[in-house]
Amino acid sequence: MMRSDNPADQGRSADVVVVGGGPVGLMLAGELQAGGVKALVLEKLVEPAEHDRAGALHTRTVEMLDLRGLLDRFLEGTQLAEGLPFAGIFSQGLDFGLMDTRHPYTALVPQSRTEELLAEHADRVGVELRRGHEVTGLRQDTEGVEVTVTGPRGPYRVRARYVVGCDGGRSAVRRLAGIGFPGTEATVTALIGYVHTPGVPLPDGSANPNVVPALVIAFSVDKPSHRPGHVAIEALQQIDDSLPRGYLAGDRAYNDQKPENYQLPIRAMGYEPVYDYAKDQLGVQAGFAGAELVEGNWYCPSMPQTLKDATKDLIAEKIDKQTWIDRIRARAAYLFMPKQRPDAEGHRRVMCPAEANRTQCPLKKHTLGRGIHLPLVDPAPSPAGSPLCCSQKTVTVPPEAGANLWQPLQYGSEAWQRVYFRLRNSVEGINGYAKDPLYERLEDAGTRRIRGIAAQTLLLAFQLAHANRRKLRAWADSIALHGDRPHRRPSRRRKTKPLGTWTPKGYVTEP
């Protein structure tokens, strides 16, 4: 981060001085700087506070971070809550699923982490942050504002067109400007504590008592690789309706099914697919109203060809792994954004990225001049005129459009990696667990020496139930409760690769 504590800087000007280097001040400064407005942040604390006064990002904040392409970093290793108490009311929790948003959750991100990531963003766009610099005086005239600052090496002054107070409830800017803060005495006091409670996993890796291991809760039987879509639907239909629906991942055999046999039924049941793709499924996969389905997501047809072909080029070794990661991230600006939740039949209304303030488009004059931080698309001229997606603010995509390859998460993004690999690892983990030659020996046909699919299914049910019970017992025995050590030594886990380093050709951290 750029810093300055030299009183020789006296008189140095900025367009806007932001007082307060917390989340609000850093976000505002980043927005101003990205829009071409020179911003200077003055923060009286020498180092960021170690304690947190907040620990969650609500839906609207998550949406704004997504619009800026910042969300993936905030979601790394973050727990998501689909309903939380709010403002001391709604003790059962707000149901974010009722909201018109693609992010119906609260992200449980500590304030210290939020400040760290926003400071990184501010630094990238060129914001100057001065820590240990306290504002002690303000004087406004017809040309702007003069700010008196006390820094580590003494007092100095800064000229700016505007000063913004983002320095909290006891704002020095508000006090120095003579702005009142009328109100009533507080009626609620909240405390945030940092405690170690019995049952929290120990540093030795003992199991988390709040996270049940992956189990088999439904299955169906057929010949290997025969009707995988039908078989999956048969199993999913057995799951109790009281259990929540969410993301659903399978191997590449599933996104090669006919939509009416797999994709459309699972979406009607409330699941959302998460896929990886075969080589012949990469790049542009389908189109609707001019929008292009590129590796599962609907994009502006004027997205640069290098971004459309990023994964193809990586597989062909035309680009390296880091370039692929950069191009996948760059795709986000051209993504059609959900306008509202899908209707009962699965129709999705999506918004042009220029209308969603993610790009600038000469076909829509009102989207121009929003700042150099937004890409300027270059639509190809066509004698037939602009496609529907370019002449309207929104288009409604029917469920059958690109149905066998569509997915809600942006392919290759950190959010996609988090969901896809967690689910796929859970599947492979339980498969390997139940195939253990010392226990269920699931893949050994000799353990089910009986004829007929009904009898085979019954015996398989007993084997899977035994594997589930064995897994639950191992989990329970590795939990540390009431300060005691777990009954069994936790299994050693391989160190996971950091999110955002995966590519279809391996991790960038590999030698």
SSE map:
Elements: E1 13-19, H1 23-34, E2 39-43, H2 59-67, H3 71-74, E3 79-81, E4 106-108, H4 111-125, E5 128-131, E6 134-141, E7 144-151, E8 154-165, H5 172-176, H6 228-236, E9 247-249, H7 263-268, E10 272-274, E11 284-288, E12 291-294, E13 297-299, H8 305-308, H9 310-315, H10 321-331, E14 337-338, E15 348-351, H11 388-391, E16 394-397, H12 414-434, H13 453-477
Parallel strand pairs: 1-2, 1-8, 2-5, 9-10
Antiparallel strand pairs: 3-4, 6-7, 7-8, 11-12, 12-13, 14-15, 15-16
Helix pairs in contact: 1-4
Report the radius of gyration as a whole number of Å: 27 Å
Order of helices and strands: EHEHHEEHEEEEHHEHEEEEHHHEEHEHH
Give the helix tally.
Answer: 13
Note poorly predicted spans.
Answer: 1-11, 196-204
Share of residues in strands: 15-25%
As laid out across the biggest beta sheet, the strand order is: 5-2-1-8-7-6
Largest sheet, in brief, is:
6 strands, mixed
Query: Termini distance?
Result: 30 Å
Structural class: alpha/beta
| Apparent shape | globular
Could you estimate the helical fraction of the residues in percent?
25-40%
What would the average pLDDT be, to the nearest integer? Answer: 84
Number of strands: 16
